[in-house]
């Protein structure tokens, strides 16, 4: 599991919510981490892009006074990608997220 988590922890360094993201990812099971890595690998966006989007999502959640789990945020980001239909990855994932949060919020 350390082999899966180490690249993630390295990319988290310096993000606004570094401590929260670090704790969330370290608490995930191997099965979930494997699924996360698979989703990242199959997308046109880098690991760093995904983590920046999660960081931005946490900022939005904080302003809304809400709490949304890492798993739920990941599902939302995957839905955003599907909804945007941007296969070349020309838009940053963070921008796609901000668009969908502005249009739809989170249920």
Describe the fold and architecture.
- The protein is an all-alpha fold.
- The protein has one domain.
- It is built from six helices and no strands.
- Helix 1 runs antiparallel to helix 2 and helix 5 crosses helix 6.
- It starts with a helix and ends with a helix.
- The model has no long low-confidence stretch (mean pLDDT 91).
Strand tally? 0
Our Rg estimate from Cα atoms comes to 13 Å
Specify the number of helices. 6
Quaternary assembly: single chain
Strand content: under 5%
Considering DSSP H and I runs of 4 or more, what fraction of the residues is helical? over 70%
**What is the domain tally?**
1
- Pattern of helices and strands: HHHHHH
Largest β-sheet summary: none
End-to-end Cα distance = 32 Å
What are the defining features of this structure?
107 residues, mainly alpha, 0% strand
